[in-house]
Amino acid sequence: MHPRDSAPWVAPPPLLIPAAPDPLASASVASADEAGVTLDVRTAAGRTGTLRLRPATGNCLRITLRLDGVPAAPRVSVVTAPTDTRCTVEQSPDAVTLRLESLCLEARLTPFAMQLTDRHLRQATDVSDPSGRRTVLPLGVTELADGRLAHHDSWFTEPDEHFYGLGERFTGPDLRGQRVDCWVEDAQGSTGTRSYKAVPFLLSSRGYAVLVDTTTAASFDLAHSNTGAWSLTVPDEELDYYLITGTPAACLRTYHDLTGPALLPPDWAFGPWISGGFRPDNAAEVRERARRIRELGFPCDVLHIDTYWQRPSCWSDLEWDTEAFPDPRGLMTHLDGQGFRVSLWMNPYISVDSPYFAEADRNGWFLHSPSGTTWTGQLWGGAQPDSAVLDLTHPGAADWFRDRVRQTLATGVSVLKTDFGEAVPAETVAYDGMTGDRLHNLYPLLFNDLVAEVTQEVAGHGLTWGRSTWTGGQRHGAKWTGDSNASWQDLASTLRAGLSLSFSGHPFWSHDIGGFHGTPDPELFVRWAQFGLLSPLSRFHGMTSRLPWDFGEEAYTAVLHAARLRTSLLPYVHRAAADAVRTGEPLARPMALDHPDRPDAHAADLQYLLGPDLLVAPLYAPGGRRQVWFPPGEWLPYAGSGGPITGPAWRRVRIPFTAAPLWLRAGGHVL
């Protein structure tokens, strides 16, 4: 058995503190043809290296910078092979220009600077305050305060420019004025800057986007340090990013071209999911919930059984607690006969109290510290024994875990909730040599890839219900926004986070209706349910009951109305979801996606279109009234009261307790 290092709660992202910025000063053309341009570059401090500008698609240019003499480190590309695109190149004594179908970039050689000439977008180079201190980091390299090497780049921004994307951002969706670290974390709520889902894909309202190909903790300064520029810093041995042009929708399509299409969930996944919650459970209670749902006629397609289907303190063993669930197969058969699919909870951490721990430890299947000892830590905030993190780069560990997942699904389970995955410590080392600072953001992809692969094999689809992700995670189908609190503020920030995911290439997201922590009052529960049942995916879940009939008769009537509305809209939702996968555009469309040139669309960040024709404006405060921005066209109340409204216009609307916050575009088709 390997010795163990016990560690506390996982640390925040490594700080990126530039100690010695060294920007590119000059360049010369080493080669130029239809495949792109290679430049020999020199920094202000005399370092030399190579800058490559290569076409990826008709509206996308790949930019890579690597210094000479920098040793390579194990890294994984999260970008699939770009299409075979060609460019035209024009050279002059002091510049080189690349032209694609929808992009034109000029690189001035000395002093070095680049610009998108068709977008009036220029690199920010020598920008300093009166004391001479740099306020942006131009294209170049820096030694960080901890000795690591990082690359950076900066571009000027316009005063009315807006920034979106970068994953699930509870402080979004418009990120202008913020500094955002792309580091997958347990957000510990939904009102702060931490995020379960980080995607280094930045989308601008000015008609361009940037995708950084890295798994490190890339940082974006979005007119935060300097209101006239935005910067990115990447602690990697090579800077590798894609510059994309086009409308926001076109940029999202290119993101999917580069990272792969989204998975279309099975039709049944778009119906309501109901969970017994994160609390002790057993087969008798599950059967009773199922009976009550069918007796009341409440729409439900998926029953979720959370953590307590497993043995105490062994919550990643994927072994049924046979005292609480003596006949799992019989239970699955019973629920299937009532028309339910079943979802089960899981995570990739193995408790030191697990009977499987010794075997896995003996085989070296866990992440280890640099000294070679098995890393263990408190991954449950003190609520459970210390755990180790399965090393999914180890073939033996991955095969063992596949077998555990396969056996679980074989009992008749339809889908797995892939919880956690954010806890790889930066200081650990994996079997394949990758260090934790590189594996940390990649790990949720490895985890969900493995579960999706086995789910496809056993259940015939690749859907997982995941909490954390990185670039490309749209291939797993469903993400929920984690552990929010039962508050109006959390409802609003959860909505903002979902729309931020929409801007980040993830078309299908959900959240815990009613919030996870705490107990909502009936009004909050109803308004959250109305929002949740008009979200891309819908699930009732929390630490206390979220069963709709536990909040009083009036609340139950309102939630039942919303659930039946969801069911009636499913043909429309299915069509819109298929279109989202085909086009790369989200199912929940933020206002600014379709109207990037309208200031009101950027201000309307608490509403969205569900598909092309339904306007959703959830209540995010008590009282039943809110401001809604109606886009151009005529909008008709759907299953509610009031007359048509012609946009573009702001209106203060009243939404009755049992009414949906929903409007139909005149001429739209939802049946």
TrEMBL record:
Does the record bear Hydrolase in its keywords?
A: yes
Name the keywords, alphabetized.
Glycosidase, Hydrolase
Name the Pfam families for this protein.
Gal_mutarotas_2 (PF13802), Glyco_hydro_31_2nd (PF01055), Glyco_hydro_31_3rd (PF21365)
Among InterPro entries, the record links this protein to: Gal_mutarotase_sf_dom, GH, Glyco_hydro_31_C, Glyco_hydro_31_N_dom, Glyco_hydro_31_TIM, Glycosyl_Hydrolase_31
Q: Which domain of life is it from?
A: Bacteria
Quote the SUPFAM superfamilies the UniProt record gives. (Trans)glycosidases, Galactose mutarotase-like, Glycosyl hydrolase domain
Domain (Glycoside hydrolase family 31 N-terminal): residue spans on this chain: 52-221
Hydrolase: is it a keyword of this entry? yes
Which Gene3D superfamilies does the protein's record reference?
Glycosidases, glycosyl hydrolase (family 31)
Indicate the segments forming the Glycosyl hydrolase family 31 C-terminal domain, all copies. Answer: 584-667
Q: Name one GO molecular function term.
A: carbohydrate binding
> Which GO BP terms sit in this record?
carbohydrate metabolic process
Q: Which family does the UniProt entry place this protein in?
A: Belongs to the glycosyl hydrolase 31 family.
Q: Which PANTHER family match?
A: HYDROLASE, PUTATIVE (AFU_ORTHOLOGUE AFUA_1G03140)-RELATED, MALTASE-GLUCOAMYLASE
What is the name listed in the Swiss-Prot or TrEMBL entry for this protein?
Answer: Uncharacterized protein
Could you tell me which species this protein originates from?
Streptomyces canus
